[in-house]
Amino acid sequence: MMNLNPDTLKLPQRELAGQADKPILRLEAIRKVYGKHVVLDDLNLTLRSGEVVAIIGPSGSGKSTLLRCINMLGPATSGRVVVGDLAIDESIPPTAQQLTSLRRSVGMVFQSFNLFPHMSVLRNVSLPQERVLGRSRKDADKRSRELLARVGLAEKADQYPARCSGGQQQRIAIARALALDPQIMLFDEPTSALDPELGLEVLLVMQELARSGMTMLVVTHEMNFAETVSDRVIIMADGKIIEEGPSKEVMRDPQTDRAKRFLKAVKDR
Amino acid sequence: MTADMFLGVATGIPWTLAVTAAAFVLGAALGLPLCAMRLSNVALLRVIALVYIILFRSVPPLLWVFVFFFGLGSGYLPISAFEGVVLGLGLITAANMAEIYRGALSAIHAGQWEASEALALPSYSTYLDIIAPQLLRVSLPSSASYAVGLLKDSAIASTIGVTDISFNANYIAKSTYQGLPVFAIAALFYIMISLPVAALARAADQKLRARVAL
């Protein structure tokens, strides 16, 4: 079983191993408008390999919309997404091949888990491997069981998702995304639908994943995670990045008034 | 009422079941692509599906069965009475099942599509592995009640000479001049088939509901 001691979240920040590496994800001038409303306003962002970046900010600031632009669940109006060697212009419809290779490189974890309710936990993790990577049932199941053990849920393999707690379902969703061997993992408020205790078991899994060197972009309201686990924090408001930098600096000494206001509001509760 | 009457009407049960089952299977299967066409991005496919659905739902089943059996059957495409009634009722069922599926589709959480997309599942897999099983599960209660209705509509088969429950009842009533008991027996058989179908559907629904909590 995994250690649920909250103190493990307060470990010193990990080394920035990937600092010198070339960028693994680059967002260039990402802009998204709904009619006259500008949701994302010419956003630029670069992630190095192995980096963990937390995006925080008030509701409606465009955090989730940004994540959905990256894997084109909701393409931007204009701008470019570059993942490794793959460059995608968001303003034109991508080819099926581009879309598949983009989504194979970028795994996503949703706020509402989105497990497939009619399949066992094991099938949830194995099916995408078989359909997307062409793995055999046997190989896929082997990999699924490894990943389920890694998120502390080896014994849940034959259950249905409905028999698992929210925290367990989210850990299964993480295993399912990892099973496709993505280069980058996107987390869209992964603990927002969970009570604090169940959220913690998800955060511990994410922390372990961060330590293992996975490149992660995490939209979150968990300020402790942003400060202690991520390498960098981005604060968004009104479709723009208003503050960006090493986690401790941004969280403890924000420069802009808007960021100060936001952080004061979340810390004073 | 005699045992002869009872047995005579009873020999029609297999035909009633066969017509109902065959028409339902045909309709349930054709309903899926029809529903997909109805929701397609391609306007032409949408129009074809819509016209099909309107056409098959607004003309009485009896008329459709006559169209296939007497219309097509006389020369164009020689078909038996059984084939004619299965085709007629099956194609009507397809139109109705497409609408049942369309309703059920809205009950499936948008996150299911998003997760399939984010996992890069090919679209055949999204439909077959993810959406279709949930769709069939959600549409089970409506499908079952449609099937019970279809069982009753299957009596139309008797008008073109399929020897089902109604055909035999009609025949025996005319030859014995005892309409009331004979048709009462026929009614009893329809009830005896309907009730277990409804009960079975309820049980299956509850079992699946408990498992997936959807």
TrEMBL record, chain A:
<dbReference type="InterPro" id="IPR003439">
    <property type="entry name" value="ABC_transporter-like_ATP-bd"/>
</dbReference>
<feature type="domain" description="ABC transporter">
    <location>
        <begin position="25"/>
        <end position="263"/>
    </location>
</feature>
<keyword id="KW-0813">Transport</keyword>
<keyword id="KW-0067">ATP-binding</keyword>
<dbReference type="InterPro" id="IPR030679">
    <property type="entry name" value="ABC_ATPase_HisP-typ"/>
</dbReference>
<comment type="similarity">
    <text>Belongs to the ABC transporter superfamily.</text>
</comment>
<keyword id="KW-0029">Amino-acid transport</keyword>
<dbReference type="InterPro" id="IPR003593">
    <property type="entry name" value="AAA+_ATPase"/>
</dbReference>
<dbReference type="InterPro" id="IPR027417">
    <property type="entry name" value="P-loop_NTPase"/>
</dbReference>
<keyword id="KW-0472">Membrane</keyword>
<keyword id="KW-0547">Nucleotide-binding</keyword>
<dbReference type="InterPro" id="IPR017871">
    <property type="entry name" value="ABC_transporter-like_CS"/>
</dbReference>
<protein>
    <submittedName>
        <fullName>L-glutamine ABC transporter ATP binding subunit</fullName>
    </submittedName>
</protein>
<keyword id="KW-1003">Cell membrane</keyword>
<dbReference type="InterPro" id="IPR050086">
    <property type="entry name" value="MetN_ABC_transporter-like"/>
</dbReference>
<dbReference type="Pfam" id="PF00005">
    <property type="entry name" value="ABC_tran"/>
</dbReference>
UniProtKB/TrEMBL annotation, chain B:
<keyword id="KW-0472">Membrane</keyword>
<feature type="transmembrane region" description="Helical">
    <location>
        <begin position="180"/>
        <end position="201"/>
    </location>
</feature>
<dbReference type="Pfam" id="PF00528">
    <property type="entry name" value="BPD_transp_1"/>
</dbReference>
<comment type="similarity">
    <text>Belongs to the binding-protein-dependent transport system permease family. HisMQ subfamily.</text>
</comment>
<keyword id="KW-0813">Transport</keyword>
<feature type="domain" description="ABC transmembrane type-1">
    <location>
        <begin position="13"/>
        <end position="201"/>
    </location>
</feature>
<protein>
    <submittedName>
        <fullName>Amino acid ABC transporter permease</fullName>
    </submittedName>
</protein>
<dbReference type="InterPro" id="IPR035906">
    <property type="entry name" value="MetI-like_sf"/>
</dbReference>
<keyword id="KW-0029">Amino-acid transport</keyword>
<feature type="transmembrane region" description="Helical">
    <location>
        <begin position="47"/>
        <end position="70"/>
    </location>
</feature>
<dbReference type="InterPro" id="IPR043429">
    <property type="entry name" value="ArtM/GltK/GlnP/TcyL/YhdX-like"/>
</dbReference>
<keyword id="KW-1003">Cell membrane</keyword>
<dbReference type="InterPro" id="IPR010065">
    <property type="entry name" value="AA_ABC_transptr_permease_3TM"/>
</dbReference>
<dbReference type="InterPro" id="IPR000515">
    <property type="entry name" value="MetI-like"/>
</dbReference>
<keyword id="KW-0812">Transmembrane</keyword>
<feature type="transmembrane region" description="Helical">
    <location>
        <begin position="12"/>
        <end position="35"/>
    </location>
</feature>
<keyword id="KW-1133">Transmembrane helix</keyword>
<feature type="transmembrane region" description="Helical">
    <location>
        <begin position="76"/>
        <end position="95"/>
    </location>
</feature>
